[in-house]
Every structure is written in structure tokens, then in C-alpha cells.
Write a structure and sequence with these properties.
The protein is α/β, with parallel strands linked by helices and 330 residues long. It folds into 2 domains: 5-146, Rossmann fold (3-Layer(aba) Sandwich), CATH 3.40.50.150; 152-325, 3-Layer(aba) Sandwich (Rossmann fold), CATH 3.40.50. Helices cover 26% and strands 29% of the residues. A 7-stranded mixed β-sheet has the order 3-2-1-4-5-7-6, with helices on both faces. The protein has a 7-stranded mixed β-sheet with strand order 12-11-10-13-16-18-17. Strand 6 (125-129) and strand 7 (132-138) form a beta hairpin. The longest helix is centred in the N-terminal third of the chain and has 14 residues, at 81-94. It is elongated.
Length: 330
């Protein structure tokens, strides 16, 4: 588990749960220690599909949007400061008169966050442990101005939201991949890890596309993609691309896969994306992928495709084209 601060303050008695009422867990993931909480009283607000599914399997009530009121709310701090502030504001609004606990790692900015919280509310307790801190205070409307303004246009004119990948503008690696794509991709195409839809928007400029399947695990990013793509050929799936089952055999898969599991670099995630693409493609199908230069994807590609070629790139990233997947029949 990434943290045990919540369990620590509950077990030592410095924090006492309200005797009744629901408890909201904003941003709880499978990395967080939730063992001291009553599962039947908790509702997890989580927009990342793998964590949503995993916590649901453990018996938690999981939703993508809070359904207050709650007696208490716990905010597990994300890395993006504005996203964390919005979560605190949402927690206060959803648990009026209740207790708000904010938990996070030092590397995720918990200390400046708690300093900002102290300027607006009196802290009732605090614990430091495992390279992070947790502190709690009574819900107040003093955080109302931290509320999220919702999705907004980035510098390139696309609708994005705080916390989604490359929210401020087009990712250079994705732009390089888009530039390398051929004029014809086939009729059935998928964008694995579609994000807010930049690559999909470029794919849909091709008139021969009959269906484009956008597969994205971040619910907020997928909502932005829906707004950015006004095209009936686009089909949207809130799903983990590594476990997604395509409704049809695909001519092409395009991807700029993530390479972090939670906060830790994990090349096996991109490798799983490659394996999933091979399963979804037609026998003569194509995979177009962009990745950071240091990621060891070539061996995985060789294990799943007959041919792989580097078609573009620079010192920071590479664009690879693989074709003719070799995989067991369904």
C-alpha cells in the first residue's frame, strides 16, 4: 500500500469516524490503505476505470461523481494542484457540517496543500507517516472558490480538464505520431488510450474510416473527447484498453500508451497495450505506436507482430509501425 496514514490516525484514536452516515472517498485507488474503513458506509468517487473496477470488486460502492450528502469525506491528493483543490471544494460541498480529511505524499504537494487549508480552516488533527501527511478539519464553504470551473479550451482549442494527460496542449509525441500516419488506415480503427481525442480527431480526417473506437480509462478525458469529436463514426468506451474487447476485428490500432501505473513508471503497461492491440487486429492489421525512446517495446512488438519498423522520432521518443499480428485465434 502507498500509505497507511488514515489507518494510523484511526487506530491511535486521534481521528474518530462519525457514528453514522456515508463516507466519501475522493480519488481512492488500489494503492491506498482503506482497511480501517467500514466498506458498507463508503462511496468511492473515482474516474479511472482500473481503480473503479478493482475497488468495486472489493465491495466498495464506486461512482464517477459524488452523490452526497456525506457525514465525512476523505480526499486522496492527486499530483495536479488545481485538481486537488477542486476535490477539497467538492468534498466540503458534499459533506456539509462533516469532517474532511486530506491525505497525500510530499512529492504530490501535501505540505503546500495543507498550508493553504490552514489559511481557510482550523486543522483538528494531523499525522505524518510514510513520506506524507494527513490532516482533517470541519467542512466549510471557505473552499468554494477552489471549485473546478469544469472543462475548458486549451491553447490548441480542444476541450480538456484538469488532471487529464496533456491538458494544456497537444502532446509533441502524439503530434509526431499523427504526422506519421498514412493516408489510409482501413475502415475499422481504434485509438487505445484516446485521452481527450487529439489523435482521434486527426484519424477522422480520413474519409475511408467507417468506425473509430476510442478506448480511454479516464472518464473525464473521455467526456472531453465526446465534446471534441462531433462525428457519428466515433464510438466511445470508458474501459481499460488492456482488457477491452473490440466489437469487430480492426484494420488499425493507434496508440500513445501510458507508461505509469499509479505514480510508478511501469513499461509493462505499454507492453500490455501492445498485446491487446494484437488480439484486436485482423491478421493483416497494423499498429502505430509512439513511445519514449527509453521504453523497451521492440521485443514485445517482435513477440506479437511479424514486422516492426521505426518510422519517425527524435532523441526523446520513437514512432513505430508494426504489422501482421501473430496471436492465438479467439
Amino acid at each position: 500500500m502507498a500509505t497507511s496514514r488514515l489507518t494510523t490516525c484511526l487506530q491511535d484514536g486521534s481521528l474518530v469516524l462519525p457514528p453514522e452516515g456515508r463516507i466519501a472517498l475522493f480519488g481512492a485507488t488500489t494503492d491506498h490503505d482503506l482497511s480501517a474503513l467500514p466498506v458498507d458506509r463508503c462511496q468511492v468517487i473515482q474516474t479511472f476505470r482500473p481503480d473503479f473496477d478493482a475497488l468495486s470488486a472489493r465491495g466498495f460502492d464506486c461512482v464517477t461523481q459524488e452523490t452526497g450528502p456525506y457525514a465525512m469525506a476523505v480526499v486522496f491528493l492527486p499530483r495536479v494542484r488545481t485538481q486537488g483543490q477542486a476535490m477539497v471544494a467538492a468534498a466540503c460541498a458534499a459533506a456539509p457540517g462533516g469532517l474532511i480529511l486530506v491525505d497525500g505524499l510530499k512529492t504530490d504537494g501535501i505540505e503546500p496543500m495543507l498550508k493553504a487549508c490552514r489559511a481557510r480552516a482550523a486543522l483538528l488533527g494531523q499525522v505524518s507517516k510514510a513520506h506524507g501527511k494527513a490532516a482533517w478539519f470541519a467542512a466549510t464553504d471557505a473552499f468554494a472558490d477552489w471549485s473546478s470551473p469544469g472543462p475548458c479550451r486549451n491553447a490548441d482549442g480542444y476541450l480538456t480538464a484538469p488532471g487529464v494527460f496533456s491538458a494544456d496542449g497537444i502532446d509533441p509525441a502524439s503530434a509526431a505520431l499523427a504526422a506519421a500516419l498514412p493516408a489510409k488506415l482501413g475502415q475499422s480503427v481504434a485509438d487505445f488510450g484516446a485521452g481527450w481525442g487529439y489523435l482521434s480527431a486527426q484519424i477522422l480526417t480520413r474519409p475511408d474510416i467507417a468506425a473509430l473506437h476510442l478506448v480511454e480509462a479516464d472518464h473525464a478525458a473521455l467526456d472531453c473527447a465526446r465534446a471534441n469529436l462531433d462525428d457519428t463514426r466515433a464510438k466511445f468506451y470508458w474501459a481499460d484498453a488492456t482488457a477491452w474487447t473490440s466489437p469487430e476485428r480492426l484494420d488499425t490500432v493507434v496508440m500513445n500508451p501510458p507508461f505509469h501505473t499509479s505514480r510508478n513508471a511501469d513499461p509493462s503497461l505499454g507492453q500490455s497495450f501492445i498485446a491487446a492491440a494484437a488480439r484486436a487486429l485482423k491478421p493483416v492489421g497494423h499498429l502505430w505506436i509512439v513511445a519514449n525512446r527509453h521504453l523497451p517495446y521492440e521485443a514485445t512488438l517482435a513477440g506479437h507482430f511479424a514486422d516492426t519498423t521505426e518510422v519517425a522520432g527524435n532523441g526523446g521518443f520513437k514512432v513505430l509501425h508494426a504489422q501482421r499480428p501473430s496471436r492465438p485465434r479467439r
